Please model this.
Amino acid sequence: MGNQHGGKTRKTDSKTTVAGKPKVEWRGYVTFELSKEQKGALAKFVQDGNDPLRWLPTVAQDGIYEIKTKWDTYNNCWVTNIYCSKFGHANAGWSLPVRASDYWESQRRAAFVHLEVLREEWHTPANDFGWDDEKW
Model:
């Protein structure tokens, strides 16, 4: 027995979404690692009751960013990606991946990097040394 609302929706142009809005083109990843000082600041935030996990619903609800957390089999860790899906936004098409050995910690760090460290300005120079769980 099928769902009466199931099926496929075709769109006529790949430059627009199904709803007819301009489509954001993929641009790549913003690679960033927290410094020792930034990790200390994050720990202090949490200790002081300002857990960045509480910031994530606001980030997701504004309609600019999509947040996804998944297991990264290559790096053997959790990765939270914040992706800017708002056409015309300075971060549009970029994804900010943040990794940790713990599911919730990857989300906590992603929120902290996005809002506190980069202040939503991903064009700020970030390092590109890759990720190593030992550095966390």
In short: Helices lie at 36-47, 56-61, 103-117. The longest helix spans residues 103-117. The chain has one domain: 28-130.
